[in-house]
């Protein structure tokens, strides 16, 4: 049994032997423990979700960068193939140039060669630009892959640790909810409803102690006669100022002597 479970059971056992106001105080303590764990659980779940989103974003970025690089590289290969084909045609034209004897055909072939030269120059420029683009995209892809690797390394530790903690906390929360329900069910329906109402209205604090005649919820003095009755009675009483449920416990001797000084 964990320390948290032992503490929860101790609070539950304490509540079973107490007056209603003491049980309300124990119920509030159980509620506090439960609220803290639920908030911790929600924080862990948000961090897991955020890490999963971050991982997905980086993976999508790597995929997009790879697709873009591959598309440009495909364009480069296609342009190089066209350039190679045009250069082969140009070589054939030059070979034909030596065999042509007709001036008309010779002129037409020379114009064809000039047009081919211009086309080849354009293709060479296009291939060079595509080569540069591929190199730039390669560098961007390497950078994105490095960022992804760093996030994956971070996530490997965080996600495992958080998921283990979430599983453990989920079990603890279920157990504490059961303990809380048992203590709450030991109270009357009307009193439990009053407690829940004050709890919701007063910032999750429904039961407060009284020390030296001062409510520890609103920090205002309560009437002396009211305080005297509170010390003598075990019935439920509300602070006249903040309307929280009051609980009075005799101060330990050491604490009382320090207060007196």
Describe the model.
The chain is mainly alpha-helical. 79% of the residues lie in helices and 4% in strands. The chain has a three-stranded mixed β-sheet with strand order 2-1-3. Helix 1 runs antiparallel to helix 2, helix 1 packs parallel to helix 3 and helix 2 packs antiparallel against helix 3. The radius of gyration is 41 Å and the shape is rod-shaped.
Produce the secondary structure layout.
Blueprint (H helix, E strand, L loop, with lengths): L2 H14 L3 H78 L5 H83 L3 H13 L5 E5 L2 E2 L8 H9 L12 E3 L5 H8 L1
Parallel strand pairs: 1-3
Antiparallel strand pairs: 1-2
Helix pairs in contact: 1-2, 1-3, 2-3
How far apart lie the N and C ends?
Answer: 43 Å
- Describe the main β-sheet briefly: 3 strands, mixed
User: Helical proportion?
Assistant: over 70%
User: Could you say which overall geometry the principal axes of the C-alpha atoms support?
Assistant: rod-shaped
Order of helices and strands: HHHHEEHEH
What does this entry show, briefly?
With 261 residues, the chain is mainly α. The protein is built from six helices and three strands. A hairpin with a 2-residue loop joins strand 1 and strand 2.
Keywords:
261 residues, mainly alpha, three-stranded mixed sheet, 79% helix, rod-shaped, disordered C terminus
């Amino acid at each position: 049994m964990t320390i948290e479970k032992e503490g929860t059971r101790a609070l539950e056992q304490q509540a079973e032997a107490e007056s209603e106001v003491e049980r309300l105080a124990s119920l509030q303590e159980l509620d506090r423990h439960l609220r803290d764990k639920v908030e911790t659980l929600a924080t862990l779940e948000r961090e897991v979700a955020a890490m999963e989103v971050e991982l997905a974003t980086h993976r999508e970025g790597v995929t997009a960068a790879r697709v873009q690089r591959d598309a440009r590289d495909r364009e480069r290969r296609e342009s190089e193939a066209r350039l190679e084909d045009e250069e082969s045609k140009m070589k054939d034209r030059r070979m034909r140039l030596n065999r042509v004897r007709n001036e008309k055909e010779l002129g037409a072939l020379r114009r064809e060669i000039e047009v081919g030269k211009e086309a080849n120059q354009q293709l060479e420029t296009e291939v060079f630009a595509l080569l540069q683009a591929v190199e730039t995209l390669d560098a961007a892809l390497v950078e994105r892959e490095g960022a992804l690797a760093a996030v994956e390394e971070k996530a490997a530790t965080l996600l495992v640790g958080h998921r283990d903690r979430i599983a453990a906390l989920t079990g603890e929360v279920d157990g504490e909810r059961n303990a809380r329900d048992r203590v709450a069910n030991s109270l009357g329906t009307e009193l439990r409803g009053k407690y829940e109402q004050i709890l919701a209205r007063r910032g999750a604090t429904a039961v407060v102690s009284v020390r030296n005649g001062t409510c520890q919820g609103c920090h205002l003095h309560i009437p002396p006669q009211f305080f005297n009755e509170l010390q003598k009675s075990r019935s439920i009483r509300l602070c006249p100022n903040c309307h929280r449920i009051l609980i009075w416990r005799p101060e330990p001797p050491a604490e009382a002597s320090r207060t007196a000084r």
